[in-house]
Each structure stands twice: as C-alpha cells, then as structure tokens.
Prior knowledge:
mainly alpha
Amino acid sequence: MQGSGKFARWLIMSTAFASVWMAAPASAQLLERVLMPGPVIEGHAQYEDECSSCHQPFSRDLQRDLCADCHTEIRDDVQAMTGFHGRSPTIPQLECAACHTEHEGRAANVVGLDRDTFDHELTDFPLVGSHQSTACEGCHAADVAFRDTESTCFSCHSAEDPHNGNLGENCSDCHAETLWTEASFDHGTTDFPLTGKHDGAACGGCHRNETYVDTPTNCVACHRIDDAHAGTNGELCQDCHAPSGWAETSFDHFEETGFALADGHGGLACTACHADASFEDPPEPECVGCHRADDVHAGNNGVECASCHAPTTWPAVTFDHAQTSGFALNGAHSELVCTACHRGPVETARPEPECASCHWSNDVHQGRLGETCQDCHGEIGWAESVRFDHDLTAFPLLGLHAAVSCEGCHADAGFQDTQDQCVDCHLEDDVHAQHLGPDCAMCHNPNDWLIWRFDHAQQTDFPLDGAHEGLDCLACHNRPVTDTVALSMTCGSCHRGDDIHATGFGMDCGRCHTTEAFTELRGLP
C-alpha cells in the first residue's frame, strides 16, 4: 500500500507538470531548468536557457539532427565520408551523446579524445614514415581544433625548407615522409636530364644558393675549373667528353692521329701521353716513346715492345716461349718475369733447360738426389704435387706413417741415411724400456700403438696358460734386449726362487706341477 501511495503522488505531480508545460511556454521553460541534470560546457553556455536548441522534448531521434544544425562541419564530414567522423565505421550508428556527454560542468571535457589509443588512420592524414613517431603537439597547436590543423608539408616544415621557398610548397613532389634526404625528383622532366656522373651530383653542386631558375646548362658553366686544357680546346667539352667521366671521350684518336687508343690505352687520360694539354707536341708513336722508363728489360729485349706485349697491359704477353725456345712456361714459371731466368740480353743470356741450372741454390737435397728435379717435383711449386712414391722404398708408409711429414723421420733432406727400425724413431715412446726388443712391429700396428696383435701361443713356443695367462709382459721379460728376444722356457729360469726342492728334482717343474698353481700336482686327485 505504501508503494502504491508513492506512485500515486508521482502520477499527480507528473500530470500537474504536464499541464503547466502545455498551458504556458514560460512555465515550460521553468520546468526544463528544474529538470536539467547539470551545467553545460563553456562553449554551450549561451544555449543553456534554450533546451530546445539541443533537445526535442520526448524525441531522442531528432537530437542528432539538432547537433548537426550547429556543427555543420561535422555533418559535412559524415556525409562526404571524410575526416574522423566520416571515416570511422561506428559513427553513423551512434548518437552524438554516446561519445560527447554534456551537463557535467563548464570545464568538462566532452571531446573524449584518448591520444594514446586514437587511430590516426581514420583521419584524412594517416601517419606514415617519420610522422608515426611525432608527438601530437608537434603538429596540433593548443589553440587550434584537431580537424582544423593544416595537412600540407609546408604548414609544419616551412622553417626547415633549405630551398627558401624557391621550389614551392609541395615538398611531397620530391621528398618522402621517412627522411628529407630520400628525394624522388625526376630531373628528366627538366631540360637537363641527369646522366652519367651528373646523376650522383648533389643539387647544390649546380644550383648555387638554392637558385633553380635560369641555371646554365653548358659544361664550362660548372666545369671551367676542371678544364685540364686550360681553355686551349675551346668550351664545347661535349665534342670530346661524355657525362660518364672525363676519361670517356668520343674523340676519334685513330682518325685524327693514326694511333688507335685501344685496350690499355683506351682508359688513359690525355695528359698520360700528352704532357702539353694543348696537344701541340705529340709523343712518338713507338712504344718506347712513352714506355722507355717502364722497360724492366733495360733494353735487353730491344725496343719492339709489341713483339711480346699486348696493348692491354704489360703482363699480357703474346710471346710464345714454348714455340720459340722449346721450354714451356707452366706452373710457377708462368708467373716469372723474364729477368728471373734471363740475366742479360735474351740473345746471349739463355739458361740451360735443366732444373738445376736455375734452382741449384734451392736444392735442399744438396745434390745427393741428382739434378732431375722433375722426377719428384712439379712446376706448380716445390711442395706442390710431389710425385715421390715411398712405397717403392724398403719402408712403405703404412698407417699413421702416411700422415707424417718428411722431416718427422728424415733429419735432413738427403733422405739416404735414414734408419728403418722402429726404435730409430720411437725409442722415447717405448714404454717397455727395450725389454721386448727393438722390433715394435712384432706386436704393434702402425695405425696406433694401442692396436697390437701379438699372439704368444702362435709366435713363440711358450703358450701362456694357467697362472701365466694374466701376467704382464715385463714379469718375465725383465731385462733390456737390443736384438732378438729369447728367453729360456724352463720353469726354473723364472721360478728358481719358488723351488722348495732347491733344484733337487731338476729345473723342469712341469714334470710334476701344472701351470695353474704349484700346489696342483699332476696325476694326483
């Protein structure tokens, strides 16, 4: 009943307010102020007494249109699908009040922009390149609405324009948004396409003081200081030179002088042959006219350089040594200069064709292996492709011996006095201290010391059985041996100290005892 009373009172008041609203506009305005939830922002303060400017009584559907009547620029953006309100996919489905809440005080922030999460891709100016790392304040001034911020390059970067405005305000025509230095201007659209060396030149190299109008295009305007001819050949550089480089000329040297600039001569600067840039005193056409100082033969081979050398470069010789002399220059010989073998004029200073005639001082064998070096060595190098076959000697190289250098066994390069017994090289490696003789190969394999194959039963007349089977070799072989290993096989030779009979029954203990133990007697149970 109590709840019914409250509802009745509310119904009576609502009916009274509605009657006042419908009876008199002034009274309705008073009612609006009574029902207003709170002050509006400072920008809307002038409309605070006119609720109908923003609200249509009992009709929320018309409130969005009332906002658009004032905020026409936003309405235009939505209709044209531009700006944030026109590009955002959610704006058309929302009421303005869904984002912009009013009646929360004069200083309330009804914009509701979160700078940390705002997606700039939904604006007319997506952030790319260096703009992505720029703070909001870098472009948006505090007293300018975000949507009213200029979006042209020049509006922000005019102070950084090194061209002083001479190239206009459309920076993006040449520059990228990553770095200023990434320019894409196509100079080919001008009357002076950049080819050859010009393509890599800095703009300021030709456009001094950022001047781009009426820039001269004749060569000497920029290259007068580079004119090696000091003006003696005129100012039409292009008659001889190409933009790819001063050294690349179109001057037909053969037609004008009778001397073709081919191969090695083709890349030379004019001054390499013409000491005088005026070309009034040309050099002699013979090779020695320019190359006398380069003649490493000191005149010993005559003055007809072209009979051996090609115009490409001095090392490119056309002289056929094999056909002319019968001695082909192969291997390391092919890289030698002529004077390495010819110590005087080639007609009179000819070395003998045998190796020793030139290499006797390099013979590490000191002549003990003869003079036919080619029996073992090749022409690539002394240590390369050695053909000596050690298997043809009395000591074939087996196992690890094959990997040992010559010096590992041969104390000198004479090779003939080297001993072939194991202990000659491995005496210090003999862990048996010579107790087992000098012939290591009788037990060990040349692949490794630990690979041994001695069979005492097969290789001697004394099988190791019974208690003898586990004995160390040095238990019986207890004295150094310099030649053949030979031990007595009688028991007493080792066990005289163990004989309780004091040799009363002789030295052959095996007549009564077994090899298992002295306590085991033959024939007894």
